[in-house]
Specification:
InterPro entries: FAD/NAD-bd_sf, GMC_OxRdtase, GMC_OxRtase_C. The chain has about 240 residues and is an alpha+beta fold. It has 8 helices and 5 strands; from the N terminus they run αβαβββααβαααα.
Length: about 240
Amino acid sequence: MEAEISAYQEANRTGFLTRLDVGPQAFITSSRARANNQADWPDYQIVFAQHGLIHDGTTRVPLALQIILNRAESVGEIGFNSTNYANGERSDVNLALIDFKLFTVLSDMEVMIEGIKLGLQVMENTTSFQAMDVAYTESIPEACRLVPYRSNQYWMCYVHQRGYSWLHIVGTCAMGLPGNPMTVVDYQYKVLGIAGLRAIDGSVMPRTTNANLNGGVILTAEKGAQAILAEYSDT
């Protein structure tokens, strides 16, 4: 470990610590998107993530295949537990009622399965991955053991058992027009009906962006800062 740290601290960094955990990524247009005349707008993401290990050269290095549905049709809900609040509860965790409603729209699952199959095709049938002797070794979920292996039904079962929501959650304070019942903030990030309160973060995006939120959140913050400066510089 000391040798690896020393190699990393050199001007021209080398060694294990210079490796990226998240490797190649691709944005793919699904058959659903193409059918909806969105052939130039990718709607899911394939990520190959290498989980590095410092080892003696005999241990296989885990490689994760991640399929991310970037433009889901399923929409979740968040509510407020007024009963708990009336009883004195003040914990945000205990007051929030969250239902992600993952895959309540069937075509979301179809896009996910399409992505899984393409990802495995890349890992198993391309010369680059074959040269690395890559093999799919994920265990079968107990609930899916009676389903034909790697069939559409199997992948549906697998996703229900081991899938999870991704990092980029938005929409709880959506920006929109005043007449829209889902609108929380206006174009200046002001919360409707509450004077002196703004929301300026990823929550104002009505739908998630087509990739990671970082760039969009930075732009949101810049626009929000400009709105605040413009308002108070005139007073």
